[in-house]
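Exercise: predict the fold of this chain.
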Amino acid sequence: MKESDKSNLIFDSKEAIAKKLFTFLIKEKGLEEKDLVLCAPSQEEQRDFTILSSSNRYSDEEVKALQQSLSMLLSIFYHNEEVRDFIFQGLDSLPNSICLYDKDSCLIYGNSDFCNYMHLQDREAAYGKPIDDILLEIGTKFTSIKRPQGYMKIKDVLRYGKPVIDWEVEVVSESVPNDYMLASNDMYPLFDNQGKVSGAVEISRSRNNQIKQVRNALGLVADYTFEDIIGSSKTMVEAKKQAMTFASSSYNVLIYGESGVGKELFAQSIHNYSERRNKPFVAINCASISPELIDSELFGYESGAFTGASKNGQVGKFELANGGTLFLDEVAELPLHAQTKLLRTLETHQITRIGGAKNISIDVRIIAATNRSLEKMIEEGLFREDLYYRLMVLSLNIPPLRSRPEDILPCSDFFLRQATHINKMGTKTLDDDTRKLMVAYDWPGNVRELRNVISRIYVLSPSSVITREILLSSLKSSNFNRQNLTFAKTPENRLEEKRLAVSRCQADLMKEALLMAGGNKTEAAKLLGVTRKTFYNMLARYKDFFT
């Protein structure tokens, strides 16, 4: 297509349209353009375009007739402009992308959603350019889910005049690499009066939300990142730094750590920090599945593979995680026969469903976690040594909470804020004695136990200030000797405890008086033998014990 032809497909300005109509009318009426002048109104003026005669060749009636014809055509143009603007505003408001191409795959129109997912800043400047050139300029890459992956399917629609429905593509921008999108496209040919293909329209729908909902429903999503891991201790900072380094690699990772330290939190963060972050994250707890079912869970099965099998078969965790990450929690609990099949999968990158004969290729990164010593299990013949070396190409140790006491209080404050948000019972804080006790406790259940205890004492505390006694009642560890912590109390601490006890008793007395008086503060004051003013002062003084 010639450049002049392409320009006709781009909408002209009002001035250009008026000039074309002026030239057209002069030719139609057999007049000379050199003797007539078209005057455009300024932005401040509210009048229309006007025609003036630059000589005495034409009478006022002829100029007036020409002016009327121009005004009539311009009014038709303005009306069409209003209709066009209304249609374009409607197209811009749609949540789906709509664009038009000419027969040479040059962009004619794209709505706002099209520009957003294409990362196209100036659509007016892009009109008339081939779509390949536009993508190259703005750094946006389309990759088809089906083959050929790097091919623009719109070209087939233009070449063969046949629609293409539900063509899925991945859209990635070089300028915003984390802004990944999966789109489903419907493409339809447009025809001229002779039945020849004159262009095509493409309608695209983002599938990101739909895929996210499915992954959420199936647990195929990693919610946490390194920003969610709380802890500024040296050991924790080093663990996070090492995990970030591992994330940039494609090797398998083995995470060691006691129960409750947050091994899955690290696994999800590694996944979200890696190149696989837009792919599935599938987690399976190897200890929670019986040895008889572990094979079908990991590798899936075909229809009728065994008694009770679904007639439609089942996709295993490896297939669900294809392209992404498979997290094997409590990997030490895998039975030996499953260890053998897992080893073969890691070596061949293929799986075979139970009852099936077809090898299925998979691309999965394994992150395994355990709180047991695999080395000792190898000596006892409970874990395959060759599998161990396949899993621990990269190994990460998560320190227990007792070895990093400086992280206890920041974690406690964070969980308190969470409890406030969830329960909506008002802000609560830990008093100084409680905070000291938090640090002194050994937390055998690590961060999981800390979170559960904070949730419990938040609900149990009748006051907005959580005391040491409330915390003591919630610590159930037999390893914790409460008598050993009394040495940490100073005389001032003990005096303060007595004051708090007195304040609680006073508040309880006032509550009882209010209950007997039916909520009438004046009557409650009389029951306590104090003035009404004194009673109100006491309410203000002990207000924290009334929440």
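Check your answer against the key: The two ends are 78 Å apart (CA to CA).
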